[in-house]
Design brief:
Length: 290
Amino acid sequence: MSAVVAKAPTKATKTDAKTNTKTTKTDAGNIYIGIGGWTFEPWRGVFYPDKLAQSKELSYAASKLTSIEINGTYYGSQKPESFRKWASEVPDGFIFSLKGPRFATNRRVLAEAGDSVKRFYDSGVLELKDRLGPVLWQFAPTKKFDGADFGKFLELLPRKLDGRALRHVVEVRHDSFCVPEFIALIREHEVPVVFAEHGKYPAIADVASDFVYARLQKGNDELKTCYPPKQLDAWAKRFQDWAGGGEPDDLPKVDKSVPKKVPRDVFAYVIHEGKVRAPAGAMELIERVK
């Protein structure tokens, strides 16, 4: 079984000789949509069937979504066998993103994070194999922008390990990052910044690499679909704009320059405080970008 990964609308199709199925010829990137984690008791009977064994929750979630952001890696190291197990329980085409460890980002001098970054990758992350997506490096809301030190941190992030290209994304949560110097820095290193839809943290929609990462954090658990239909439609359109190489015209940017139009993969996660309806919101978005 393969995960159904959406692409932006295209015009031409061709038939795969091996599977006799029609595939889309496109210059757009893939769109992956999901939630944060898969273990959450209030999802039982709402997202998960009542009698579903807890050991089957990941495989069930992966059958409905196209990606999951793993949060546990932020708090502590996981074992190689855990990564192998998770990879084995999801279909082809499904992607995990991982939070990098807090020990690397919650420090005064980011340039000294090298050992923490190395330990993270030595813990078995690559056992996810082709299910491994971006690693999210999240910074505290109190962390202010220091161009020299932040640049040193970006230099510590490995671009390739064991022949595999790696992707990194940063989530900054202090207004001091809303400056052109920060955008220039992440573009130089090709490490994008999270677009955070949040009531408090800065929203930065400047693209910086061949992928975009969005975290939608204003969902409403009183709505069965998490967001109203018009908002879901608007987000689906933004994802398709990004995937096709463009940019949404209704999101805030720091640098007003127009980057080169290139296809971009999109990773989007519905993550809000209550999160009961997050899976429903993610599934609604997946349907809209098919």
